[in-house]
Amino acid sequence: MSSSATTRRPGKTKSATLADRLGWVGAAIVTALVVMAIAAPWLAPYDPTERVGTPFLPPSADHLLGTNDVGQDLLSELIYGARVSLTVGIVAAIVALVLGTTIGILAGYYPKRLGSFLMRGVDVVLTLPFLPLLIILAAYLGRSLINTILVIGVLIWAGPARVIRSQVLSLRSREYVLASRTMGAPDRWAIVRHVLPRTALLATGTFVRAVSTAILLEAALSFLGLGDPIQKSWGSILFWAQARGAFLTPAWKWWVLPPGLMIMAASLGFALIAFAMEERINPRL
Amino acid sequence: MRRFGLRRLDQYLVVFIVAVSLNFMLPRLMPGNPLALLAGVDVGLMTPDERAEVIRQVGLDAPLVSQFFDYWRAVLTGDLGFSYRSGRPIGEMIGERLPWTLLITGASLVISAFFGIIIGAFSAWRRGKKSDLTLLTGMIGLQSLPSFWLGMLLISVFAVQLGWLPSFGAVTPASDLTGLAHVRDIAEHAVLPIATLTVLSIPGVYLTMRYSMLEVLGDDFIRTARAKGASESRILFGHVARNAIAPVVTFLAIRFAFAFGGSVIIETVFSYPGLGRLVFEAVSRRDYPVMQAAFLVFTVAVLLANLLADLLYPILDPRMREQ
């Protein structure tokens, strides 16, 4: 016990293997969910938009997870729900990645006037009350898949931008960047040739982390009734479960429990991959 | 690169200006008629004369710049306007709701700080051992919990299945309880929302404490303490934890702001009559002025929490004070 605090090496390797192992678990979860989303029409027993049974049925051989308040098959809704969650999560994270990387690189490469201006913007976005702003923007813009993606994307880029900026800031003063500048290469060259490739791994890590966040945010928006009314997502299944009081009846076991587990699995899958990548890039354990 | 104390005031001022300007711009930039967003009436059903009258009342006929200054004057004098659903002054509505949100976020923050700091310190102390890695993995798992789902499950189990606690509201309606019974009633209603928020806050406190401890454990003065023969528990609590606590306080301030905003979701699940629930009600009734006013209150709360952390940091971390 007494030596554990000072001997760092053995701990590091153990933690590193833990991070790797968790990363693979995450990858397995994500793969399973992607397969489920793509193969949804073959996997789902019914069309999730059709009324295929009596409303509020408990689980049976015909409907493994029962039916909802209008008689749609809950298992089919659950399987199709993977499509919305993953699409919103990934596309919103791409929006955040593009914004965050662009602003992070510009702020890091031109740290003086442009950089301090941009970082001030980053600070403002990070300080604003996040969830209320998300909800208000979604309420003003109206309910559609594109709006959900945009609202989430424009609110989560600031964290990645800050991480990428500090990396670029340190790359900027490396010899090879200085050399290419002394030889008269334009900034564009140095950024594309030297800075971007060495930021790619870090950017990928922040991207995967952003997917995990975006999945939780999409679920929260849909749960509040601010998601696309046509697309069924795990969050919107829970919205209806809440609206119809399913969690006050035994139905919570098949109507409330499964969608939440799916949201958690999806978010956790990406979070574990991100954790493993972050440990590789910057071992903090 | 961190700056402390009152030097970040200018940044907070910028945030406030941005928040107010966003509030002003959003209804005016959105597609469609801003009148519907500002006055909240069925504009389509009105005669042109009535419409002109409403436009004049709301001030939409004035030039944009003067609308902007009028808006600022209203915000700075604390005039938050009226709800166009209930017609009540918004300031009054927020005043009723705010204490409930402060109660559950404040209580959950204290409890999660207590557990997060202790478990984080323990984990760092056992670094790389099985108990540390198990705790770490568990906390990463907790971070992926959807907050509203956790709340729904707690209601299903503790309020419905077991019947131990009430499932909604902040007090039993029309019960006219007084004194201790009243306090007990409030406490029983607050248990599940506080438990939900606490479970969600612990992982962040834990991770911050653990990393902060690991940094301090590598410092020279810990080796000195060990060399002079200090006991393990004295090193852990007297030296390491003491010096590792400052970043946790900063995190707690940020977490408070986040939990405060997160009350929109938690209070919706528990039908808890706080500020978050007010936002949800305003959103579903398209009561835009209430939505906006609540957003401003959230912004001010976030700024105050940050300010408090900035002021506390040098007190907690003596190294900062000397510089």
Instruction: Characterize the overall form of chain A.
Output: elongated
Helix content of chain B: over 70%
Biggest interface, which chains?
A-B, 58 and 69 residues
Return the CATH architecture of chain B. Answer: Orthogonal Bundle
Keywords:
heterodimer, A: 285 residues, mainly alpha, 0% strand, disordered N terminus, B: 323 residues, MetI-like fold, 13 helices
General description of the model:
The complex is a heterodimer of chains A (285) and B (323). With 285 residues, chain A is mostly helical. Chain A has helices at residues 9-38, 40-43, 74-109, 113-127, 130-141, 145-155, 158-172, 175-182, 187-223, 234-243, 252-281. In chain A, helix 3 (74-109) packs parallel to helix 6 (145-155) and helix 9 (187-223) runs parallel beside helix 10 (234-243). The longest helix of chain A is centred in the last third of the chain and has 37 residues, at 187-223. Chain A is elongated, with a radius of gyration of 23 Å. The two termini of chain A are 18 Å apart. Chain B has 323 residues and is an all-alpha fold. Chain B has a single domain (2-31, 80-322), classed as MetI-like fold, CATH 1.10.3720.10. Helix content of chain B is 76%, strand content 0%. Chain B has 13 helices and no strands. Chain B has helices at residues 9-29, 34-39, 48-58, 64-76, 90-125, 130-143, 147-161, 179-217, 220-227, 232-269, 275-284, 288-316, 318-322. The two termini of chain B are 13 Å apart. The mean pLDDT of chain B is 80. Classes of the chains: A mainly alpha (285), B mainly alpha (323). Chains A and B meet through helix 1, helix 4, helix 5, helix 9 and helix 10 of A and helix 1, helix 6, helix 7, helix 8 and helix 9 of B.
